[in-house]
Amino acid sequence: xxxxxxxxxxxxxxxxxxxxxxxxxxxxxxxxxxxxxxxxxxxxxxxxxxxxxxxxxxxxxxxxxxxxxxxxxxxxxxxxxxxxxxxxxxxxxxxxxxxxxxxxxxxxxxxxxxxxxxxxxxxxxxxxxxxxxxxxxxxxxxxxxxxxxxxxxxxxxxxxxxxxxxxxxxxxxxxxxxxxxxxxxxxxxxxxxxxxxxxxxxxxxxxxxxxxxxxxxxxxxxxxxxxxxxxxxxxxxxxxxxxxxxxxxxxxxxxxxxxxxxxxxxxxxxxxxxxxxxxxxxxxxxxxxxxxxxxxxxxxxxxxxxxxxxxxxxxxxxxxxxxxxxxxxxxxxxxxxxxxxxxxxxxxxxxxxxxxxxxxxxxxxxxxxxxxxxxxxxxxxxxxxxxxxxxxxxxxxxxxxxxxxxxxxxxxxxxxxxxxxxxxxxxxxxxxxxxxxxxxxxxxxxxxxxxxxxxxxxxxxxxxxxxxxxxxxxxxxxxxxxxxxxxxxxxxxxxxxxxxxxxxxxxxxxxxxxxxxxx
Length: 519
Description:
The protein folds into two domains: 3-29 and 402-517, Golgi alpha-mannosidase II (Immunoglobulin-like); 34-397, Glycosidases (TIM Barrel, Alpha-Beta Barrel), CATH 3.20.20.80. The chain is 26% helix and 24% strand. It has helices at 3-13, 68-77, 123-133, 148-159, 165-172, 201-218, 239-248, 267-270, 273-295, 339-354, 388-397; strands at residues 19-23, 29-32, 39-41, 81-84, 108-110, 115-117, 136-141, 183-186, 223-226, 254-261, 302-310, 359-365, 374-376, 382-384, 401-403, 406-408, 411-412, 420-421, 423-430, 435-442, 449-454, 461-469, 489-490, 495-497, 500-505, 509-517. The longest helix has 23 residues, at 273-295.
């Protein structure tokens, strides 16, 4: 936020009676900070690909047609993995359409989003873009209209060095070295009635197990993700996980989780999103471990939370084309995010980190234009949404291990969700760099909160940075014309004295406090 605004907000919230107590001690570890927690998602949906990452006619396009301004912002965002090419799109996708000479590629209907795809970007282009962005590609295979053989074909095309028909085809197409993609999603949201090729749990489970076994015959070290439920509200949630894992437990590493959050006009309810995500994760863990117990397995399957974000799905921007209108790269799902949405995104990241023992990978959906932290104008500017900031700062500074915090916090009741903590917090500790970082969200829509943290267990420490993201108007939105007047700003009320760290957290705020710790 702008300095004058943040100062006003801090003055308004000083001397609050509400206090949350936290104990930070490096002896209590949840698990490692996983770089794959900071993944994102690029789907052939709306303007995510075309005029998003790829726009050959743009003044900033490189020789391969990729927007260098978007590449720069992607690197600044700190994205680790990027899931591709869907999403709902993948369930009708023929990957062969997106390889070879661009002028010979077929234009196809995309039934998932009632659009047309020119197939100018495919697996080779995405692999090239990933290398430039410094991210690891995470590939999804079509188990909607296709099956095991097609999954084996794309795996051979991508990963075999040479000497086979498909690997030699890749080399002839210009990708001499294999892409060596190790993370693979076995379809997408196959529990959803909206999905092309939607299947019953038993149908999908058998197909996923057969496909996983066959893919491991090519490379037993692949990291494979089975489809979990599309959200906690699905009528089959729980039973779907049981059925799918009963078939696939021995041949997959992760099961997916998808969850989106929307502000329906009740800000306090919206701010409970992190609490609701935490409940969902705990439910999934119980279903995974039930199957593990029944199978008497020593193997541990964990979670790939490979779609998560704030998505105002009921708004006009999420309405897809219809009838005879099959546009190329229409403006779809282009939510404009508020400061409150950014606080929620920061809280969701805190929640993912707090569950790092079981959430081993996650993907913010999506990266550019489509419910995204990065926005572009066709032929024009690229700019940061509010949600960019907590993600970038958390990705940049969370390192080492995630600490298990003891938290005593006031409780909040929203209209639908009750009894959740006003404070959401997590800490990381990197012994190698000598840095501990506390990430904290005040979930109250109306009242400030004092953070009182016992950090003596860290040893001698000093504050090296303390920033808070908030605004008097939590519904402020960034635009292409003004994306910088509200930014994370110094929180001057943070104090560290005698092993006691205190901070004033405004209502609807996200805060990061970095501590240098003497070894």
